[in-house]
């Protein structure tokens, strides 16, 4: 009977545990306290402590940097770029942290829109884990749209790429040593769509990032036009922002495009184009829940249709967060789109599709959501969620933080590639972390628990405009395979004219680890170094609890047996004493 009751209790505990594995937990107050308002604009390790900080825009006129802390609230505002540090009437449209002058310290780039609708670029230089607020730098060139931050010349210092208001040719601006130099970028003119969704990403798996969809960096390091993917969008009315992820786990980056099929945005879809293909394949077209049809929110110039990607369940296939509205009502909520095997003939050529999680009550409880993205709040390798909502009567958005309690004990590898401008001898003794390096490409190949070959790839900070909200590292899920990672490849951009691909391979990487790669010197991959930091999985904790439980159980049994033996000894002693008493008589 006692064993039966114990089994019931164990079953109930297991049931409760399993229920908690799929839930989201609101941890907003733990993270921000009363400071949970503003627009989350970017992420970056500003303090160079290997903890990701958050950049938030308030009232479209100031930027606050929230540093990660070990005490509640876990994110506290420490650095403030106020409206007094900017020209009067400046409207901030985006924030892009990065090391623009090559001193291995994070600077902050702001794009702002003026009355002429042109985009101006401001940069505040970093120094000793803070900003020189009095030394604002203004680029003497305005752009027709928000620029793309990329490493155009392969020197591992971010550059500024875009179309100016002066001529239709693309321009690239270098800011090395704080000496601006702007020149023509591409040899042929390109008509950029506004709002643009340009990307700096490797599309042909040569471990060298290429510009956008129409240009790639060839074997000699130069950019040339190459129609690797469809150059025309699907026949739809409204086209959203392009995103690039390894959707089907084949090691190649795929092009995802959210669209509205009619002008009123009543019918929505998400299309995918594979590298080397000219065909758009629908991976999500069913937006109906019971009798209600949901759709994308009609795009605004400052906030176009956007997917924010992340592998929330660590199965090796990137999922997405998106904002949908009720076409027959006024509801507007954030939804999770899970990457699942294809069960429709329309996506058969891809093998994967997106499925909407309709029953995520924690996401559904947030009214008037306007933006949602993934963020590893506790730096444990599990992607949590940040959702921004519009409160009535308030100008700034409200920030909601949701902890992902996914506990299926899946594994991951987290890779951050630094600039490699210095290793252990950085100027002024700064740590080489936290430089937000665009362009590196990461790919792994391994064997899963079934013996099948598994691979995945991702680009680091491939997009920067219109709140792309990409994390300064790549987080690749491994599924439930606890095997060592067989091969991990890391590649970086190379100089124009350079023939050799800058790529290095690491083998036997431990799962649930963070690998920080320092590509120094850039042109000698054999000399690159890596620092490995382990994140114990949930199974380690469960194993420890089980071991302690077994030890306690054995100690209890030993104690009971010892107590029974002691009682028996006492009984024998009393009997012996009793016999001795009668013998004495």
UniProtKB/TrEMBL annotation:
User: Locate the T-cell immunomodulatory protein TIP C2 domain: which residues?
Assistant: 432-533
Query: InterPro entries, from UniProt?
Result: C2_TIP, FG-GAP, Integrin_alpha_N, Tip
Give one Pfam family, short name only: FG-GAP_3
Protein's membrane topology: Single-pass type I membrane protein
Gene3D superfamilies on file? Integrin alpha, N-terminal
Q: Name one GO cellular component term.
A: plasma membrane
Q: What broad class describes the main subcellular location of this protein?
A: membrane
Quick check: keyword Heme in the entry? Answer: no
Q: Where in the cell is it found?
A: Membrane
UniProt keywords (A-Z) are: Glycoprotein, Membrane, Signal, Transmembrane, Transmembrane helix
Check the UniProt entry and state the signal peptide residues, or none.
Answer: 1-23
Membrane-crossing ranges are: 540-563
Protein transport recorded as keyword:
no
Q: Which family does it belong to?
A: Belongs to the TIP family.
Full protein name: T-cell immunomodulatory protein TIP C2 domain-containing protein
Report the source organism: Mola mola
